[in-house]
Amino acid sequence: MTATLLIEQVLNGLQFGTMLFLMAAGLTLVFGVMGLINLAHGSLYMVGAFAAATAAAATGNFLLALVAALAAAALAGALVEILVLRRLYRRDHLDQVLATFALILIFSEGTRWIFGSFPLYLDVPQALSGTVRLGTLTYPAYRLAIIVVGIAVALGLWLLINRTRLGVQIRAGEADREMIAALGIDIAKLYTVVFALGAALAGLAGALIGPIQSVQVGMGEPVLIMAFVVVVIGGIGSIKGALVGAILVGLTDTLGRFLFPVILGAFTDPSSATAIGSALASMSIYILMALILVWRPTGLMGAH
Amino acid sequence: MSRETVLNLAILAGLLAVALTAHLSGEPFLVTLATKAAILGLAGVGLNLALGYGGLVSFGHAAFFGIGGYAAGILASAAQNYEPLMTWPLELPGTTSMPIIWATAVIAAGLVALPIGALSLRTGGVHFIMITLAFAQMIYYFAISWPAYGGEDGLSIYVRNTLGTLDTMDPLTFFLIVFALLLLVLGLTLMATRSRFGLALAMARQNPLRLTSMGVRPFRVRLTAFVLSAMAVALAGALYADLNRFVSPSMLSWHLSGELIVFVILGGVGRPLGPLIGAALYVLLESQLGQLTEYWQLPLGIILLLVVLFARGGVIGLVTGRNANA
């Protein structure tokens, strides 16, 4: 194990973390403002990836593909909010879980119907297909770009929520929904906008990850569950918590997969070290979550 | 008898009648479908104890279903391959005896549910949903990456496990075994919900503060309900593995946790037999829609969505026209 290899894994962890942040930010925003648990968030991620793959295949332009992903996911999110979720804000979480579970079935099966079961492929854009030299390390430019996009989105969200009129309304909506309705703000429209914003972030994550993994039905589900872990760790409703949680989970997962087999290799033979190590690594983020829950049941930055 | 009691008896009699007539008219496939409905119904009855009576929305009960399944699979494959289950610290052989498998499944699930429940119940509401989901996912990934028991490919049970001298490979015999266990668990659940524990559990859901003022800690009551519920679901898991003669990580997947919740809600939350009718409907829809279209989950999703939005008491609520008072 060399330092270069370790740095590469840390960067991979950061890249995974920023992608998780894009997912978790939407989830935590929707929960914080509307009190809604949305299992179908992974479907919006999938919608983004499929829209990007289709647009890229038609135009060959990655930027257009990103725009298509944002638009498709935001549109799907707004539609779902207006048609279904709006009726569920006052219901208990059980109804929300079931309705959004039904939405997953509809989205997944609908996508399979339209696009078939075979995965689609999305190419890394020409300009980012090379590598970047960082000291002794050569790292794919595209993965570095994902990290940069993630940081930019985090900054943008911070500005949006703390420095704009919409942000004031969102924060007020979290605190007291009757009051902001009384102040003449159309709360139904605000909720649709917030949901579409969260959906667009999920779609962006799906489109960005498309060139790294294949674009297929069900791709959103593992990510959704990891995003839940991020939200629980960071504290529900906190964007800052989502950022910290996402980086923590991204690093733990990636470094765990890399380090556990190496560490165990010092004690047992290589094949069982790999087996036990990968089993341990796949459990590591959940163990991290359990430890944080013992310490702080509402998450690192949770107020609720 | 109330309308619901009559309906409940009719449901049980109906399930039995379906299996018997299918057997007599020589349609073993239908018997197997009825068995599947009974097993999934049993799992739903187990989940209902936590979800319906206790108000604990667990999105991770597939973990216990899968643990039950793996208990059956691991014990049976060890016995069928004549390999000891473990050699250290003491040598344990596998077994194909159903009662031993059931007991192992139930105890193993209880032992796993205890720490998961204790940690998850530190929180409530939406945290609880996400955390139970995450723990179930942890066990799922563990099952996939741990190579000893088939990993992603799962484990086959070559011949169904044994119960005394009964021919368990006969579809009707196996159905009757499952049906008897379903009745047993239903009876136990009814007794539990009517006991002091059941009343405390209902109060923990409705008004935990009041329960505390009566000198009962809601945490303990909830944890007991969570563990008992996990044990019942594990029993169903062991039976399900025997039905298919196969276990795989898909029994542990979050999709299954979602389906278990669907059974409970489709039938009616907090109704003793709600999960059974929910599971039966689900199996029926699955087999009927599956004949119509390859994409049967699309209409299923739409039906589910309509039930959540417009039929809040589930099927039993629609038929009896009353809210659950459990």
Short description:
The complex is a heterodimer of chains A (304) and B (326). Chain A is mostly helical and 304 residues long.
Describe this structure in words.
The complex is a heterodimer of chains A (304) and B (326). Chain A has 304 residues and is mainly alpha-helical. Chain A has one domain: ABC transporter involved in vitamin B12 uptake, BtuC (Orthogonal Bundle). Chain A contains 11 helices and 2 strands, in the order ααααββααααααα. A two-stranded antiparallel sheet of chain A has the order 1-2. In chain A, helix 1 (3-34) packs antiparallel against helix 8, helix 2 crosses helix 9 (220-234) and helix 3 runs antiparallel to helix 8 (187-209). The longest helix of chain A is centred in the first third of the chain and has 32 residues, at 3-34. Chain A is globular. Chain B has one domain. Chain B has 13 helices and 4 strands. With 326 residues, chain B is mainly alpha-helical. In chain B, the strands form 2 sheets. Chain B has a two-stranded antiparallel ribbon. A two-stranded antiparallel sheet of chain B has the order 3-4. The A-B interface holds A 31, 37, 39, 84, 87-88, 93-95, 97-99, 101-106, 108-110, 112-113, 221, 225, 228-229, 231-232, 236, 275, 278-279, 281-283, 286-287, 289-290, 293-294, 297-298 and B 51, 57, 59, 119, 122-123, 125-127, 129-131, 133-135, 137-138, 141-142, 144-147, 254, 258, 261-262, 265, 269, 295-298, 300-302, 304-305, 308-309, 312.
